[in-house]
Amino acid sequence: MKKILIIGGGISGAATLHYLSQKYTPQEASVILLEKENTIGGTVGSIPKDNNIFEAGPNGFLGNSSQTFELVKELGLDNELLCANEDAKYRHIYTDRKHHMLPTSLSSFLGFELLPVREKIRLISCIFKRLEFDERMTVGEFAEKNIGEHFKKFLMDPMVSGIYGGGVDELNLCAAFPRFAQILKSGKSLFQYRFTNRKKPKANKGLYTFKGGMQAPLNQIAAKYKDQINYNQTIEQVTYKDQKYRVKTHDQEYEADQVVLSVPAYVAAKMLDSFNPKLAGALGAIDYAPIAVVGLAFKQEDVIDLPVGFGLLIPSVEDNQVLGVLFESQIYPNRYNPHEVVFRVMIGGTHHRAIVEHSEKEIVARALKELAMQFSIKNLPQTTFFKLWNKAIPQYTNNYLDRIKTINEELKMQPGLHIVANYYKGVSFNDCIKNAFQTAANIEI
């Protein structure tokens, strides 16, 4: 019987455990997951508090991945799915002390104040022509060269910081948005590409979560595979000798034929340094953005000027520590106290790394000040939630491309070692599940 160890119980590791356990019988392979905490989840965490649910990590997933919906079905969570409210399609940019709703129709696009007429014309023309592009281009370079400065500054910049917590002039277009880069690499215009791929089945639209929060699939996996998860396992050393991996924790030793690393890059680097310093060096050099998550619930009557929609993003030109604000109780109204308005404030990112030096009290005060200014809130919140991630989101920069190249080369020469994590082939919840599925499919015993 072969032995497979998965190190790390975030959504990547947990999904890998599920897929490998579906692929192999217990007689064929022993599949064990090691988790340093007393529960699995990683950055995914749903905390019920005062009839509301606060998310420490992702608050939902896009409905464009059939793999995620298949996992939901396999875990028996179909009836637990929640689709975001229809009004969540409305999104805002907050700049110059005003809320600007992103266009949702041609008429609203023509009247959108943040883009000059010249850039609106260039944006429309981009649909029908090949765009200027090379594989080392940052998102900012691509946006400015093909459309213009305002498009970069007021649309692409806040979108990038909302997804990655990073800078538009640092993130590499191919790495950060591989699906869009695939279209550009095809040499076709967006219209041509859409036309030639029109027969592909349509994906579900919208944003989804679970009635009990994003922790739901993790809880289901924890219950289903409880005998295959070892908690409170702090890894002290990983070695490789005689085609076997040996993993030493503070109280046990494990031997495995194959190891799946589903821990952050900087954690994986320390584990591998003793036997593959080149791979460890590449992993350790991957940069992360710090993010503070502040959840705040107010009485409905205390929130005066709240626009309808998903939330807002703030361009970096504002030099604001707040990256964006999600209107959680408008996105998933059935999950929250009907008499309260619940916000999720994201603070920090690569432009404000010093956020990690601030206290919880200071960060919450900053969030309250922002909400009070934007929405005329006078009273204190009914409930507060706080989570600081010193290293939250990996940064897919040009340097990242070089490091991934090294990582791929070293993995080819390191038999039985695999990586499934949000710094490798995508940061989203969907990406992690897709990569877990593909890795499990590729593992042969």
CATH topology of the largest domain: FAD/NAD(P)-binding domain
Strand fraction equals 15-25%
Report the radius of gyration as a whole number of Å: 23 Å
Largest sheet: 7 strands, mixed
Number of helical segments with 4 or more residues? 16
Helix content: 25-40%
- How many individual β-strands? 20
Which class best fits the helix and strand makeup?
Answer: alpha/beta
Notes on the structure:
This protein is an alpha/beta fold and 445 residues long. The chain has three domains: 2-40 and 213-286 and 396-442, 3-Layer(bba) Sandwich (FAD/NAD(P)-binding domain); 115-196, protoporphyrinogen ix oxidase, domain 3 (Orthogonal Bundle); 288-394, Polyamine Oxidase, Chain A, domain 2 (Alpha-Beta Complex), CATH 3.90.660.20. The chain has helices at 11-23, 66-74, 106-110, 117-125, 139-146, 149-164, 173-176, 178-185, 190-196, 216-224, 265-272, 277-284, 328-331, 360-375, 398-412, 429-442; strands at 2-7, 29-34, 46-49, 52-55, 61-62, 81-83, 91-95, 98-101, 207-210, 229-230, 235-241, 244-249, 253-256, 258-261, 288-299, 311-313, 322-327, 340-348, 383-394, 417-419. It has a seven-stranded mixed β-sheet, sandwiched between helices. Strands 10-2-1-14-20 form a five-stranded parallel β-sheet, covered by helices on one side. Strands 5-9-6 form a three-stranded antiparallel β-sheet, with no helix packed on it. Strand 3 (46-49) and strand 4 (52-55) form a beta hairpin. The chain is globular. The mean pLDDT is 95.
Brief descriptors of the model:
single chain; 445 residues; alpha/beta; FAD/NAD(P)-binding domain; protoporphyrinogen ix oxidase, domain 3; Polyamine Oxidase, Chain A, domain 2; 3 domains; seven-stranded mixed sheet; five-stranded parallel sheet; 16 helices; 20 strands; globular
